[in-house]
């Protein structure tokens, strides 16, 4: 049992992977190779429109001596290989499944549906002569399967008492009906029986009523049998051209049923006349332009200690972009605080340490000493008191965003980028902090000062590296934007 990349995924913001799954008593080599040497996974990887699409082939244990190695065991192995080999990094996974491979694919989708929804994945299911309701020939072979103890063969039998297959059929239909997971599907069925096909017509190994079940009108591939249907002769073969068309449509597909669209690295929506995007990454690495204001969180003291703290968004941003001019930057911060707020209030920040507080939920705007962006806005989202430490409240974020919009209106700045305010040392759970921030921004866009100006707002959800899980999943990001999206 092993998986292998025929061609790796391209370096795109929305990677796509095609996974080939063979059928019973076969393997990843014999299933897909035509007698002229054409190998379908390679044929697909060389197709000109598949430049950024990864192609992966999975082989599992299914020979006549596989014994008690069941379909559930196959699904477990598939799940593990997709994880270990990085296939799960794909935002769109297309399972190309022949015969029993389609049953494996459907069971995998049903079992992992919550995980797929959670990471915002879309699934394509391209079923090739797959016995969704079983195969009468598997029933005929059942005595042999019993003698050999072949668990997979017994699971394929076409009969009302096949509880495993009947339950899977019901579970998969329910998953399609719920529409929580975006599933694209297409079914291909064989044209004729394998043996004696030139002498007389016989029932197919997988008849159309069993192989065309879920996705509307199925395609019968002319002159194909149960095995040749998975072995296209070349690039002009009907099944290959159909697969390429299926993949291309999924690559182009954008689910905007709730007025939320996929964008580079995340999702975006429109709120009023403005646009809010939420992307994965690191605030210090986001490519902000000279017309953009960078918004960063700070505590109520607006102090320069944060500049050296690599655990904060403010610290890492200043160290990356303004390290040589950090002292100049924080001198400007102190000047802006005094001009805007006047004298601060002395508070015991930590035991034996007094500092001047300017209050939570406040915002100031400072010119960027590096001249890379239009300016840097600081929003005080946390308090810090001796014996209590740091604490954030969503009310601070709402108040701070309200002041921020006044500053943006004064400066005539309509493009901003920020991390998730309140989710760092403030301790607010990141999904909750993101939801609160989006609601605060939506309120500012619709009702705040300067609302007549169309704004472009980008929130960067922390993700240490592209291989690490983000602080907030893509599915949660999408649901958050659906809360504020224009509904008309």
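Q: What amino acid sequence fits the structure above?
A:
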């Amino acid at each position: 049992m092993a998986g292998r990349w025929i061609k790796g995924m391209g370096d795109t913001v929305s990677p796509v992977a095609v996974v080939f799954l063979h059928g019973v008593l076969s393997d990843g080599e014999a299933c897909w190779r035509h007698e002229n040497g054409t190998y379908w996974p390679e044929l697909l990887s060389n197709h000109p429109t598949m430049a950024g699409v990864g192609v992966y082939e999975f082989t599992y244990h299914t020979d006549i001596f596989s014994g008690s190695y069941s379909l559930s065991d196959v699904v477990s192995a598939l799940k593990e290989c997709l994880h270990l080999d990085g296939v799960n990094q794909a935002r769109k996974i297309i399972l190309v499944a022949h015969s029993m491979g389609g049953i494996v694919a459907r069971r995998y989708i049903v079992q992992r549906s919550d995980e797929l929804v959670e990471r915002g994945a879309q699934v394509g299911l391209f079923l090739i002569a797959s016995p969704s309701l079983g195969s009468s020939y598997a029933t005929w072979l059942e005595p042999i399967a019993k003698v050999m103890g072949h668990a997979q063969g017994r699971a394929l039998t076409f009969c009302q008492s096949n509880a495993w297959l009947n339950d899977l059929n019901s579970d998969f239909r329910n998953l399609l009906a719920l529409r929580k997971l975006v599933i694209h599907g297409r079914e291909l069925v064989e044209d004729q029986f394998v043996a004696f096909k030139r002498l007389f017509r016989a029932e197919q190994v997988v008849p159309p009523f069993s192989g065309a079940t879920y996705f509307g009108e199925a395609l019968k591939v002319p002159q194909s049998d149960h095995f040749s249907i998975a072995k296209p002769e070349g690039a002009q073969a009907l099944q290959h051209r159909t697969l390429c068309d299926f993949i291309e449509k999924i690559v182009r597909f954008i689910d905007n049923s709730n007025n939320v669209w996929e964008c580079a690295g995340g999702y975006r929506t429109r709120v009023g006349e403005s646009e809010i995007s939420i992307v994965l990454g690191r605030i210090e690495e986001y490519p902000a332009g000279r017309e953009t204001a960078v918004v960063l969180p700070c505590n109520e003291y607006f102090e320069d200690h944060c500049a050296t703290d690599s655990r904060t968004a403010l610290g890492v941003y200043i160290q990356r972009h303004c390290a040589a001019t950090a002292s100049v930057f924080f001198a400007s911060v102190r000047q802006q605080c005094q001009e805007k707020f006047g004298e601060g209030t002395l508070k015991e920040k930590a035991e034996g340490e007094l500092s001047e507080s300017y209050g939570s939920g406040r915002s100031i705007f400072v010119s960027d000493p590096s001249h890379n962006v239009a300016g840097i806005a600081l929003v005080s989202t946390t308090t810090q008191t001796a014996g209590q430490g740091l604490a954030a409240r969503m009310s601070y974020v709402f108040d701070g965003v309200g002041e921020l919009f006044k500053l943006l209106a004064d400066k005539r700045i309509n493009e901003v980028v920020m991390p998730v305010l309140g989710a760092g040392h403030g301790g607010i759970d990141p999904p909750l902090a993101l939801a609160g921030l989006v609601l605060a921004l939506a309120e500012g866009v619709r009702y705040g000062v300067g609302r007549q100006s169309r704004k472009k707002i980008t929130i960067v959800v922390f993700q240490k590296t592209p291989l690490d899980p983000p602080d907030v999943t893509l599915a949660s990001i999408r649901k958050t934007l659906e809360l504020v999206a224009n509904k008309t």
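Q: And what stands out in the fold?
A: Residues 260-484 form a domain with the Leucine Aminopeptidase, subunit E; domain 1 fold (CATH 3.40.220.10).
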